[in-house]
Amino acid sequence: MNHTPGPWEIGDKGKSGIRIMGAVGTLLYESVATTNTLIYPANASETEQANARLIASAPELLSALKKADYELTGYFNNLSKKVQERWKDTGFYSTMQEVKQAIAKAEGKE
């Protein structure tokens, strides 16, 4: 199953939390997430507001990770096997693996 396509945005602020909205069509939006608060969100904590911003940016972050994965993997695969083996102990390679793991987690493949 695929997630609701982005972009997502911070929607209305009801009594149960800050809603994150995603476009389903041209004029139709659906709630994709709600932060959890029992206070009126106008008084939501800075942490809750930060969580809402992070959740709302998820589709763009996933897209950016997929582009980075494509570029990093392409670059790495163009190296000679000897150089690839030396690079496996570097920050470049570990970053490439972290990107792949984050994508897999977001797509439910982890």
Task: Give a short overview.
The chain is an alpha+beta fold and 110 residues long. 49% of the residues lie in helices and 18% in strands. A hairpin with a 5-residue loop joins strand 2 (17-23) and strand 3 (29-34).
Describe the protein.
The protein has a three-stranded antiparallel beta sheet with strand order 1-2-3, covered by helices on one side. Helix 2 packs across helix 4. The protein has two domains: 8-56, no CATH class; 60-106. The protein is 49% helix and 18% strand. It has four helices and three strands. With 110 residues, the protein is of the alpha+beta class. A hairpin with a 2-residue loop joins strand 1 and strand 2 (17-23). It is elongated, with a radius of gyration of 19 Å. The protein has helices at residues 46-56, 58-77, 81-87, 91-106, and strands at residues 8-14, 17-23, 29-34.
Architecture blueprint of SSEs:
Layout lengths: L7 E7 L2 E7 L5 E6 L11 H11 L1 H20 L3 H7 L3 H16 L4
Antiparallel strand pairs: 1-2, 2-3
Helix pairs in contact: 2-4
